[in-house]
Amino acid sequence: MSPDDLDGIAARENASRKPIQIRCCTAAGCLAVGAESVRRELQGVLEQHPLRDQTEVIGVGCMRLCGFGPLVRRDPDGTTFAGVRPADAPAIIAGQGPELTPLDMHQPFFRNQKSVVLANCGIVDPERIESTIAAGGYRGLRDALTLHSPAEIVQFVTRSGLRGRGGAGYPTGVKWSIVAGSTDPNKHVICNADEGDPGAFKDRTILESDPHRVMEGMVIAGYATGARTGYVYVRGEHPLVTDRLQKAIDQAREFGLLGTDILGRGLIFDIEIRVGAGAYVCGEETALIASIEGGRGIPHPRPPYPGKVGLWGAPTLINNVETYANIGAIVENGPDWYSAIGTPTSRGTKVFSVAGRVVRTGLVEVPMGTPLREIVEVMCGGAPKGARIKAVQTGGPAGGFVPEPLLDTPVDYEAMAAIGSIVGSGGMIVLDETTDMVEMARFFMDFCRDESCGKCIPCRTGTVQMHGLLERIGRREGTRADVLRLELLADVVRHTSLCGLGRSAPNPVTSSLRHFRGDYEEKLRGGPKS
Amino acid sequence: MTDSITNQSVALDLGEVDARFGSIGEWIASQGLSNGDLMAVLHRTQAEFGYLDRGALGFVARALRLPLSRVYGVASFYHNFRLTPHGRHEIIVCTGTACHIAGATRLLEEAHCRAVGLKSVTVGSTRCLGPCGAAPVVVADGELLGGQTAESVSEIVARARHES
Amino acid sequence: MTAERKMRINDVQVKFEEGETVLACARRAGVRIPTLCHFDGLSDIGACRLCLVEVEGSAQLAASCVTRAEPGMVIRCHTTRLAEYRKVILELLLAERNHVCSVCVANGNCELQDLATEHQIDHVRFDYQFPALGVDLSHGQFGVDHNRCILCTRCVRVCDEIEGAHTWDVAGRGGTSRVITDLAQPWGESQTCTSCGKCVELCPTGALFPRGTSVGGLVRDRGRIELAMAHRRHESCHG
């Protein structure tokens, strides 16, 4: 197919749309509360319904308000219904019914979002490439191939100020130029979809809802760096991602958007899926590469970095799902458009999954620099039942606790690091006043102990010892000396571990000690210090 | 901490193993897989046979020309590969952060309690499945169920028990 | 113009060859850096973290066994901070399994014991874990006591890289990792073991030992194996 064919496909797809579209969320959050039976019922009722010629039911991705699923939207007017049951199907198709109360789409949760990555989530059918193309999918790729040289694309990514969305915030453009600068004819592009932070679900949702956006970013990366093979490493726990992504890959090959002559411009690039099998450490890039190569997911010391020596020893570009999902829009709208969003050091938008003790659990995309309070209180409604927020945990087991008084901190890589947490991959867990911070620290340490690969001594045994100390303190059998031991181990494990998992494993301990020392003191044998 | 890996005598009858896992061998050959595809082969073998016993691992090692200890090392590294047989019904409780806060520990205890002595039901846990909005979440025989309670979990176990 | 290949280690000026590691340079300069997982002739994995050094201008400590020397590098190997980190790491090892020297075959001939003495460890600040791990005496000549194993994987690497048998590997992960032979079978049953004994020679502790060795009776003869490795290095340089 040629670059112009994209417009033709979009036009045909738009012409075939029926006037009324009922979009039913089929992402994992809604599926867990019965979205599939709602969709089947909608389909079934519609077949006999007088409006059947003017109406269609479309399975779409995430509509963001995951805690109120199943969600169904009736377009073109956009009336959205929450907590839909199969019995509601006739009323939804008819567009009215006494039992239906539509969601207020002007509430801050929806109004304050800035959609770049999630622009097509909940709108396109992730299982039909035509639907994505009609919504503007692959236009970034077309522009890249027809208007820009590979070097210009690398320049675009650098100038956009985009930083890695997997957690560390490394400048994406630097990674791209290292791989692009290598003369090795054999290079690879990897998408890290091993979203393992407990309580984080933004990568999973992006891939379930709009897989083509991520693939488009990867193909552009292949063009810019000269790599011909791409791998998406998906968590074994996310079978729906694997299914949808495989369908998307098959369709992209069929449409000439992957393969040996992409968009008729002679570009060679293809994508394969690799499925993990339950190892958090594989989110670390060198461990992920070891796993793709068929080995134990054990990290290697860096340098050499994957950009120089990566998969099968070849230069390898490895980025997070959300990072790739930004690329198409950056190419299409230009780097200046992108860098105008956000703060001077953290450009663009960031997707967060908000869960825990919060009124509105779901997915939010906001400009970088938005204060945490705006996200968890204004948009997501704060803690339920009028409870006070005690802290927000960001960045999963590698992150830290942000206490309530610091919630005005903007989500920006530097600002978050300054208060002892990280932006991380985007998981935010709201903790209310009833939360025991020693128990939360123990929970995360249990996780790290269980997920340590066992290669280096400090992480393998230090996490076991720290977990034991936290358990003892939790049982109210700990002493002041135990807290000192905990601090000593946190320091040693942070500074001597081989990879990021070990180096950040003490974070929940140090950040809870820093902000919630009282929770520890109160449990020590002999009571708090007077 | 207990020793989860114990030595076990293995008498591999190559003829028997080849016959048992012939379908996997054919698949490997048809796809032209090599030793870098070990993970995919283990996934496929487990999907077909339910778990990876030493016979299966020995077969895979030979088919991909990999050292036996390497294959065992990989299979035992990843939590989703099962080295022992599981019951016909599998109930997995998510213990991710959102589910933990919503009481997953209690659900896991309940499921374990109800399934004691039931060979047909295996109870396990996993680290975050992602649908945190529906916490706490349980996967019963592959079906994702949100908003679970101790009562609903105990019902799931009871149903599984009656079906076996 | 290429910069001169010189660096400073503990205030000693050291010349180096392209590709040399910081550890190799330090040793040549007579600066002792403690190691456990490193063994000359085997690939380096940077796992034990004892050889960590401070690199001026870098926030992170570097494992000297896997860090390449660079012109102008300034390395410090013996700061108070490093001494404390090494001590804690050794204590963590001592607490992880069972390292009661008085009943160990390697007593008096053990690298872990020597390092503990060198770092003046007279007590361990952490809880002893004492997991109940087994002893495998199924092999005709050798035994493995998992309670003494520190998972340095020298046995795994020598078996793979020098002997070419790959009988050993690591199974499990984290604190429940364990070295295994073949499909986690009794060693004596292994189809791939050539009984060459290289793993036993290279074990730093009393985990691998010749059968019949009594407490404190372990004698190592590494000359034999070092010869084999030197030969291999020669081959890889000139082959």
Can you put this structure into words, describing what you see?
The complex is a heterotrimer of chains A (530), B (164) and C (239). Chain A is α/β, with parallel strands linked by helices. Chain A is built from 23 helices and 14 strands. Helices cover 42% and strands 15% of the residues of chain A. The termini of chain A are far apart. Chain B folds into two domains: 64 residues; 75 residues, Glutaredoxin. Chain B has a four-stranded mixed beta sheet, with helices on one face. The two termini of chain B are 33 Å apart. Chain C has 239 residues and is an alpha+beta fold. Helices cover 27% and strands 14% of the residues of chain C. Chain C is built from six helices and ten strands; from the N terminus they run ββαβββααββαββαβα. In chain C, the strands form three sheets. Chain C has a five-stranded mixed beta sheet, covered by helices on one side. Chain C has a three-stranded antiparallel beta sheet with strand order 6-7-10. Chain C is globular, with a radius of gyration of 19 Å. The two termini of chain C are 31 Å apart. Classes of the chains: A alpha/beta (530), B alpha+beta (164), C alpha+beta (239). Chains A and B meet through α2, β10, β14 and α18 of A and α3, α5 and α6 of B.
SSE string of chain B, helix = H, strand = E? Answer: HHHHHEHHEEEH
Distance between the termini of chain A: 76 Å
Structural class of chain A: alpha/beta
Percentage of residues in helical conformation of chain B:
40-55%
Q: Biggest sheet of chain A: strands, sense, closure?
A: 5 strands, mixed
The largest chain-to-chain contact, stated as pair and per-chain residue counts, equals:
A-B, 55 and 38 residues
Number of domains of chain B: 2
What fraction of the residues of chain B are assigned to beta strands by DSSP?
5-15%
Number of helices of chain B: 8
| CATH homologous superfamily identity of the largest domain in chain B | Glutaredoxin
Integer-rounded radius of gyration of chain A:
24 Å
Query: How would you name the CATH homologous superfamily of the largest domain in chain A?
Result: NADH-ubiquinone oxidoreductase 51kDa subunit
User: Average pLDDT value of chain A?
Assistant: 95
Report the radius of gyration of chain B as a whole number of Å: 18 Å
Determine and state the CATH class of the largest domain in chain B. Alpha Beta
Give the helix proportion of chain A (percent range): 40-55%
